Amino acid sequence: MKGPLLKVENLVKHYPLGGGIFNNNSLVVRAVQDVSFSVERGETLCIVGESGCGKSTVARLLMRLVEPTEGRVLLEGIDIASLNKHALRDGRRRMQMVFQDPYSSLNPRLTAGQIITEPVENFERMTRKKREALAADLLKKVGLAPEIMHRLPSELSGGQRQRLGIARALSLNPAIIIADEAVSALDVSVQAQILNLLMDLQEELGIAFLFISHDLGVVEHIGHRVAVMYLGRIVELASAEALFANPVHPYTEALIAAAPVPDPTQARVEAPVEGEVPSPVKPPSGCAFHPRCPLAEERCSLEVPALIPIPDGRVVACHVRAPATGVDSQVAQAVDTHASAPYPKNVTD
């Protein structure tokens, strides 16, 4: 099938506030504002940003766990918002989710084998022999012994539970898996194991991932492309290699500068940002980042910047660094210096 596997067009989600006759019902939380991106088959697109930027809301919108205020989500060319209950149920086989907490996302009353096969049994009847064979096969795929299929989640470690969650997502043979902070609750050593597992499964099965995280080290390790969100909007979208080598948007610079550097001899690049993240109920006019941006100009407080393509293939929403008339010469030269292929080689342990 031609075209991207997943395409998001101008997605908007507002949550109304208040209630009752004395409250102001006109107030809304602008959780997601005009978000657009696509995910190709076999690709990992990461979404990063501070807490409250709208990352998890995007994930829920893609799964249609909540309805969008505006915009479209196209899965293999089909708008999931147009699907009725039965068609949506079938469509969800193609898009599955791995949640942040590997314990609360699993039914504590079911065994590991039952957790894996339950999604499949929603669509087809299986004999006991077939259920056990499926559970054993998927447990092996995620690096677990088939013998644990008879254990409860409480009898498993955190890493084993997250592998079990991945096995459950794989049971329906999806085209894309949405992983919302899928390793943030795990120890660092276990994180590396889960990330390498996801990369191996992608290479073996051709699955696409939408990986949501606030950990830039994790994103640099697993991502092909990265979308940076701030207060409900994407401000920069680029290949992972280009983004980490040369961030263009001031907010992207600040995020990377704030990340810990493992090498004590390596000098850190400072990108000072002052102030607090504004409220999504009353976001600033113009560019939402302008009250904290060291490069802000008068135009930044008046106009919302559009996502503008620049020479290395990325898009950036910044009046200063990527004006609508074209990229300034210094930024263009820096970007061209670090131009990269759309699918950079991932780091391995």
In short:
The protein has 349 residues and is α/β, with parallel strands linked by helices.
Relevant CATH superfamily of the largest domain: P-loop containing nucleotide triphosphate hydrolases
Uncertain segments: 326-349
Which range does the strand content fall in?
15-25%
Global geometry:
globular
Report the sheet with the most strands, covering strand number, pairing sense and barrel closure.
8 strands, mixed
Kindly identify the CATH topology of the largest domain: Rossmann fold
Helix content: 25-40%
Instruction: Examine the secondary-structure arrangement and name the CATH architecture of the largest domain.
Output: 3-Layer(aba) Sandwich
Rg from alpha-carbon coordinates = 21 Å
Output the helix-strand order: EEEHEEHEHHHEHEHEEHHEEH
From the N-terminal CA to the C-terminal CA, the straight-line distance is 35 Å
Strand order of the largest sheet: 6-7-8-3-9-10-12-11
Q: Helix- and strand-based class?
A: alpha/beta
* CATH level 1 class label of the largest domain: Alpha Beta
Regarding quaternary structure, what we see is: single chain
Query: Could you give the count of β-strands?
Result: 12
Number of helices: 10
Please indicate the count of domains. 2
The overall pLDDT average reads 86
Spell out the key features of this protein.
8-stranded mixed β-sheet; 4-stranded antiparallel β-sheet; globular; disordered C terminus
Could you walk me through the main structural features you see in this protein, from its secondary elements to its overall organization?
- By secondary structure, the chain is of the alpha/beta class.
- It folds into two domains: 6-223, P-loop containing nucleotide triphosphate hydrolases (Rossmann fold), CATH 3.40.50; 228-260 and 269-337, no CATH class.
- 29% of the residues lie in helices and 19% in strands.
- It contains ten helices and twelve strands.
- The strands form two sheets. An eight-stranded mixed beta sheet has the order 6-7-8-3-9-10-12-11, with helices on both faces. It has a four-stranded antiparallel beta sheet with strand order 2-1-4-5, with helices on one face.
- Strand 11 and strand 12 form a beta hairpin.
- The longest helix is centred in the middle third of the chain and has 18 residues, at 188-205.
- The radius of gyration is 21 Å and the shape is globular.
- The two termini are 35 Å apart.
- Residues 326-349 have low confidence and may be disordered.
